[in-house]
C-alpha cells in the first residue's frame, strides 16, 4: 500500500488512456499499463465482458452465506471505518466496506464526494465486483492477494475515469477466500497521504482477530477429535469448514496424504489433502450443518494409494453454537447421502492421476507428466518430468488397464507408454520398432513384435 502514499492520480494517465482506448477496440498490446491493471482489463473484456461504456454499477443481487467470521469482519471494519470517517471526509474522500460479492454494505465520508459517488451507484447495496463494474479498487482487490491502487483511466469503465481508489481485501486466514474489502475513493484528486497506512493497519488488525479465532477453532477441533478417537477404532480425521485437515490418526493420514496425529504448532496452519471429493463433501456438510446442527452425512471418495473408493461419514463439530469443522470417519456410512459434486470423480471411476513415491513422500502426478511406466522386478518405475519415480502400484498389468482410456498403451511386456509423449518412431533393420520419447534424454522404449500392430494403429503409421 506504500504506493498510495506517493503516486499522483494522473501520473501517466495520458498514456494509460490511449492504451485503454486501443484495448477496448480489440488491440492486445498494453504499453505503459501496470501488469495488475492489464490482467484486470483482460478479465473484464474476455471473461466478464463488462461494457466499458457502463455509466453506473448494477444493483447487487448475489446473496452471501454469512458465517461468524463474516460478522466479525464486518463489525471490525465498520468500527475502524467509522472512526476515521471524519478525517477521510475532511480530505475529500469516502470510505466503503463491501462483502465478498462486491456489494457495498456501508459508506462514510465527504458529503460532496458522496453526492458524486451516488451518480455512479457508488453507494450501499450496489455491486462493485470486477464482473459487475470492471476494474476498480474494490472489485480488483477481491481478485488480487494484496492492496490495490486504481487511478483514473486504469478503471475499465470510462465513466469512472475521474476516480482514484485504493482497496484491500480481508481474507479468511485458513481458506484464503475473500470475506470483505475496505476501500477509499477520491474524486479528481489524489488520495489522502494517510490512506495506505490506514488501510493496511485496519486489515492487519482484522486479520489478527480472524487468526486468533482460527487458532481457537483449531484447538477445539483437536479436542473433539481426541474425544471421538477414544470412542472409536475407525480411521479418523478432523477437517475445518473448508475441508483442510487439522489432525488425522495414522491410518487416516495415509489415506489423506498428510502428517499423522500431530497438529500444527499453530492450528491456523492446515494441511491440504488435495482430494477434491473430500473438500467438496466437507463444504457441503458445513452448509447442511449450518441449517440443521444435528445433520450427519456419508459418501464415498477416492483416497491416496487406493484403487477403490472409500466410504466416509461426516459429523459436524460446533463450538459455542458456531460450526468450526467436521470429524471424518473412514469405513463408515451413516447419515444422509452427500451428493457428488460436479466435476469430481464418481464411485468406480479412477481419478486421472498417478501416485508415485519419492523417499517417504507421495508424489501426485498428472498423466501428462508421465512418459512411460517400466516394470523392473517387483516394482514399477515411472519416467516423468520430475525424474524417475517408483509407482505406488506394483502391477504393470493393472496400471496399463487403468490408463488404457487415457492415451496410454502397452507396447511391451515391460512397458506402458504415454502416446502423447512419443517424439519419433525408429524402425530397425529387421522391421522392429522403438519409440523415442520427448524427454530431455530422448529415451527409447522397445516395441515387442506382438504389440507392433497396435502401436501402428494407435499412431496411424
Automatic annotation (TrEMBL):
Residue ranges of every copy of the HTH LytTR-type domain listed in the record: 354-461
Signal peptide feature range: none
InterPro entries: GAF-like_dom_sf, LytR-like, LytTR_DNA-bd_dom
Annotated SMART domains: LytTR
Pfam families named among the record's database cross-references: LytTR (PF04397)
The protein, known as: HTH LytTR-type domain-containing protein
Organism this protein belongs to: Kibdelosporangium banguiense
Lineage of the species this protein comes from: Bacteria, Bacillati, Actinomycetota, Actinomycetes, Pseudonocardiales
Amino acid at each position: 500500500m506504500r504506493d498510495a502514499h506517493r503516486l499522483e492520480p494522473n501520473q501517466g494517465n495520458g498514456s494509460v488512456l490511449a492504451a485503454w482506448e486501443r484495448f477496448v477496440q480489440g488491440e492486445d498490446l498494453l504499453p505503459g499499463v501496470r501488469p495488475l491493471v492489464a490482467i484486470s482489463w483482460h478479465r473484464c473484456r474476455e471473461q466478464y465482458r463488462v461494457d466499458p461504456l457502463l455509466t453506473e454499477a448494477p444493483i447487487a443481487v448475489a446473496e452471501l452465506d454469512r458465517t461468524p467470521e463474516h460478522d466479525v469482519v464486518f463489525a471490525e471494519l465498520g468500527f475502524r471505518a467509522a472512526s476515521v470517517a471524519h478525517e477521510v471526509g475532511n480530505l475529500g474522500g469516502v470510505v466503503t466496506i463491501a462483502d465478498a460479492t462486491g456489494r457495498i454494505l456501508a459508506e462514510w465520508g465527504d458529503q460532496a464526494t458522496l453526492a458524486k459517488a451516488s451518480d455512479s451507484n457508488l453507494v450501499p447495496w450496489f455491486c462493485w465486483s470486477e464482473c459487475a463494474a470492471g476494474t476498480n479498487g474494490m472489485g480488483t482487490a477481491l481478485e488480487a492477494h494484496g492492496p490495490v491502487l486504481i487511478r483514473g483511466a486504469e478503471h475499465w469503465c470510462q465513466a469512472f475515469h475521474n476516480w482514484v481508489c485504493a482497496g484491500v481485501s480481508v481474507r479468511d486466514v485458513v481458506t484464503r477466500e475473500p470475506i470483505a474489502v475496505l476501500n477509499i475513493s477520491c474524486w479528481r484528486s489524489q488520495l489522502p497521504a494517510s490512506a495506505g497506512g490506514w488501510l493496511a493497519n485496519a486489515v492487519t488488525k482484522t486479520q489478527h482477530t480472524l487468526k486468533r479465532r482460527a487458532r481457537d477453532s483449531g484447538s477445539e477441533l483437536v479436542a473433539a477429535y481426541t474425544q471421538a478417537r477414544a470412542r472409536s477404532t475407525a480411521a479418523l480425521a478432523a477437517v475445518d469448514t473448508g475441508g483442510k485437515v487439522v489432525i488425522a490418526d495414522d491410518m487416516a493420514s495415509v489415506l489423506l496424504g498428510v502428517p499423522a496425529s500431530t497438529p500444527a504448532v499453530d492450528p491456523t496452519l492446515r494441511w491440504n489433502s488435495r482430494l477434491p471429493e473430500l473438500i467438496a463433501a466437507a463444504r457441503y456438510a458445513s452448509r447442511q450443518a449450518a441449517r440443521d446442527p444435528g445433520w450427519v452425512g456419508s459418501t464415498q471418495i477416492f483416497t491416496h494409494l487406493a484403487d477403490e473408493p472409500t466410504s466416509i461419514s461426516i459429523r459436524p463439530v460446533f463450538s459455542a453454537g458456531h460450526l468450526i469443522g467436521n470429524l471424518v470417519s473412514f469405513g463408515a456410512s451413516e447419515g444422509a447421502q452427500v451428493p457428488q459434486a460436479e466435476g469430481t470423480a464418481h464411485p468406480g471411476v479412477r481419478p486421472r492421476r498417478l501416485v508415485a513415491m519419492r523417499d517417504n513422500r507421495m508424489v501426485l502426478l498428472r498423466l501428462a507428466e508421465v512418459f512411460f511406466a517400466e516394470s523392473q522386478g517387483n516394482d514399477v518405475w515411472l519416467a516423468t518430468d520430475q525424474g524417475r519415480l517408483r509407482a505406488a502400484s506394483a502391477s504393470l498389468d493393472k496400471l496399463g488397464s487403468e490408463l488404457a482410456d487415457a492415451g496410454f498403451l502397452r507396447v511391451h511386456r515391460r512397458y506402458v507408454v504415454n502416446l502423447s509423449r512419443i517424439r519419433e518412431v525408429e524402425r530397425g533393420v529387421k522391421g522392429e520398432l522403438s519409440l523415442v520419447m520427448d524427454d530431455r534424454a530422448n529415451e527409447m522404449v522397445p516395441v515387442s513384435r506382438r504389440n507392433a500392430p497396435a502401436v501402428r494403429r494407435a499412431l496411424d503409421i
